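Hello again,

I reread your note about wanting to compare the complex against the isolated chains. To keep things tidy I'm splitting this into two emails, and this first one only covers the full assembly. Below are the input lines as submitted, including protein chains and any nucleic acid or small-molecule components. They are followed by the predicted structure of everything together. The single-chain runs will come separately.
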Amino acid sequence: MRVPNYLSIRLVSDMGVRRGDGIRNQLPRILKSRSAFSPPGSGISSPPLPVYAIVSLGCYGLLMVGVGLMMFPTCPQEAVLLQKDIVEAKEFLKRRGVDVGSD
Amino acid sequence: MELADKAVGFLLSVISLSIFSYYTFWVIILPFVEKDHFVHGYFPRQEYAILIPVFTGVAVLSFLCLFVGFVMIKSSKKKKSV
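Full-complex prediction:
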């Protein structure tokens, strides 16, 4: 099997193919030895980094949502005042004859 | 009511932090650990580190598209009947 020159360099340096011995007999050894992600020192580029970036972005978004939920300011005094204002407004409008609805 | 909100927010942040740390350890640290260390037993095979997020992403996106399409069909049917 003839391998093009540019590919043969990469195969010898990165994948541990030995020159002189046919590629077909070396295939079982190569496929068994190579792990899915190799550390950068071995010369093989790391496949999982883009997926890792997307997953970490999703995690960051979820974290920001959770933190925002925890830190949400509720202002209890303003809530009480608001309820009072609503009651006042409803009475006022009812006296003037406007239909206020949900009671 | 604010306590329920705080609890949900806390749960979300805990889930996201744990997923992030587990995934970081799996993808970045584990390739540098030698093959017969005991910690390899706590993580599935390395191929799944790519497959699981991809399949989850595909499932989420298709669910979103189905949901949007369903809502659009329902609203157009209602407009036609009225």
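For quick reference: The helical segments of chain B are 2-29, 48-81.

B.
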